[in-house]
Amino acid sequence: MIDVYTWPTPNGHKVHIMLEEVGLKYAVHPINIRSGEQFSEDFLRISPNNKIPAIVDSDGPDGKPISVFESGAILVYLAGKTGKLLPRDVRGKYAALEWVMFQMASVGPMMGQAGHFRGNAAPEPKDYPIMRYTNEVKRLHGVMERRLTENRYFAGKDYSIADIAIWPWLRASERNGIIWSEFPVLKRWFDTIAARPAVQRGVQVLADKVAPAGTYDDKAREILFGKTQYEKR
Known about the structure:
52% of the residues lie in helices and 8% in strands. Strands 2-1-3-4 form a four-stranded mixed β-sheet, covered by helices on one side. The two termini are 30 Å apart. Helix 1 (10-22) links the parallel strand 1 and strand 2. It has two domains: 2-84 and 201-230, Glutaredoxin, CATH 3.40.30; 90-195, Up-down Bundle (Glutathione S-transferase Yfyf (Class Pi), Chain A, domain 2), CATH 1.20.1050. By secondary structure, it is α+β, with helices and mostly antiparallel strands.
C-alpha cells in the first residue's frame, strides 16, 4: 500500500496519475497547504522541505517502509517499483529523465511564477515579473512544441513518466498567457494525454478541494507567500 500525502496541485496530480497508471493501491492523506498542514511535524518527517506530495511505501525495496518526497523522485521510484513507464533501454531511460528534469527545473518553476504574478501578486500586479515569466512560459512551450514535432511523446515513441510530469502543469497554460493555436502539436499531445482514463481519474483525486486560481483569503496568502512560509524550522 502506498500512502500519499498530497493536495490537488500540478505536483500532486503527477503522483495521482502515476499511481492510477501503474495500478498500485494507494490511500490519500490530504495535506491542506492553505491552512498550513504542510508544516506539521509528522509531515516534515517525510517531506523536510514542507512541500507536497510525499509518499510512504509500506513495502519498500528491502521489505521495509520507505518514504519519498519530491514529485519527480516519486515518479522515478514508482516506475522502478513497477517496471512501468520508464524505458528500460539506456537511451530511452535518459531521454525520459531529461524531460522529467526539464519539467522540474523549468516548466514547473516558470509556470508557477507566471501564475503567481499574473494572479496572486499583492497588493497589485507588477508589469516586469508578469512580462518576464509569461515570456519564459511561452518560450518553454516552444521548446515542447519542437520536441513533439519530432517525437510522439517526450521520451520518444512511448508514453512515460516524462509526459506524466509535464501534463498537469499545462492545464494552466491558457491562464498563463498561452494561445494554444500557436502550439498545435503540443495541444494535440495535451488532448491525447487528457483522454487517458488513468489521467482523468488522477485529476479527480481531492478535486472537491480545488479552489479557483488566484483565490486566497488573507490566512492562506500569509501561509503560502508570507511569514509562515519562511520561518526557520
